[in-house]
């Protein structure tokens, strides 16, 4: 990469795929759907980059270059693997498990992705690791629990958490951990933000990973994960595991991920725009706000100024992401809402980061693998509904969701639909559907110009 190109924005860098070279000069990286590569010599030949796709593939190399741009590291420190959970498995096996004579201690959050919780529970049950859960978004509680351990080998962080949207102070936590023990591996699941919004390597963490199934690919037509190591030494340890077990991402999925990355910037911007409009509408118009009669009725989104950690999140992130959640205060009403046949745009499914919008009930879906008693202990709301915004017209998303709310007997429309009455907490609000919709391109660029022209004409007429 030239010094000039290093000054380009992330959006531009991801659109430009300059690493591939093929004999026909293709403008799009070719797909090397090949298991093996012919050897030119039986001697050790440094120029022979590939021999077997399990160990490396030209298409995989290109996508690792693109992720390297996103995180500002050399492509040799990036690995594309078969899923987000594969990332965590490789990281734990590569740099945590078996690296000491004793059973390693892992500290993890108490609001985790269900798959992460399942893997950690599996390791703990077989005495492969001592897993300690703590609210990593509560700095004083985290530091207290950390200091109670004889030794901590790894800290696993997520921010914001999913689906409670709590914010962990990644820079401050990493500084604390590294002062206590420089050898403790700080690992960050950055799927909720993606490298477009946050780069935890800047805070001194050791390894970042993302489920590339989500924002990075953005179309939910592949499963993939990416791992980014802080140093070449850590990268080598991770590569040994990947090459040994053969979990590198397939060439076709790498090719699709390269394509998806090109539109990450525009997709994520529109998704965050939609999430911001929806969150404000849910809070002000629909009454899902903690200022109501029941403090549990609230909209959770780090992009809202009412979020208690709004300023903290904004201090080290470029955006709020596009995942939000809200609580109705009633498990049955939430279940009826998510199951409503009125939902025509919102797809009832797990996952997030897709171009189309998704709705789910975590306790019955993505977090169902977490024991109900554990969810209760961690104060996980059983009635919580998660929204993962896509790129559709936001007014259409609002109308679709509103229809399901009416069908589920959560809200009632009054005054011809201009007023929304929340039947669960008595909140009355103006229906602001349509406010915040992306304007027509002519209006956006020339609307103000026309206004100025009309003012100028009126002033001339007065003269």
Your description of this structure?
Helices cover 37% and strands 13% of the residues. It is of the alpha/beta class and 463 residues long. It has two domains: 8-262, Aspartate Aminotransferase, domain 2 (3-Layer(aba) Sandwich); 265-441, Alpha-Beta Complex (Aspartate Aminotransferase, domain 1). The strands form three sheets. It has a seven-stranded mixed sheet, sandwiched between helices. Strands 8-9-12-11-10 form a five-stranded mixed sheet. The longest helix is centred in the C-terminal third of the chain and has 22 residues, at 441-462. The model has no long low-confidence stretch (mean pLDDT 91). Pathway: Amino-acid biosynthesis; L-methionine biosynthesis via de novo pathway; L-homocysteine from L-cystathionine: step 1/1. InterPro entries: Cys/Met-Metab_PyrdxlP-dep_enz, Cys_b_lyase_euk, Cys_met_metab_PP, PyrdxlP-dep_Trfase, PyrdxlP-dep_Trfase_major, PyrdxlP-dep_Trfase_small. Pfam families: Cys_Met_Meta_PP. Its cofactor is pyridoxal 5'-phosphate.
Keywords:
Aspartate Aminotransferase, domain 2, 37% helix, 463 residues, alpha/beta, seven-stranded mixed β-sheet, 2 domains, Aspartate Aminotransferase, domain 1, 15 strands, five-stranded mixed β-sheet, 15 helices
- Distance N to C terminus: 60 Å
Fraction of helical residues: 25-40%
CATH class of the largest domain: Alpha Beta
Q: For the residues shown, what is the average pLDDT?
A: 91
Number of strands: 15
How many whole angstroms does the radius of gyration measure?
A: 24 Å
Q: What's the structural domain tally?
A: 2
Uncertain stretches of 5 or more adjacent residues = none
CATH superfamily of the largest domain: Type I PLP-dependent aspartate aminotransferase-like (Major domain)
The fraction of residues assigned to DSSP E strands is 5-15%
Which descriptor suits the 3D outline? Answer: globular
**How would you spell out the order of helices and strands?**
HHEHEHEHEHEHEEHHHEHEHEEHEHEEEH
Strand arrangement within the widest β-sheet reads: 1-7-6-5-4-2-3
Helices, by number, come to 15
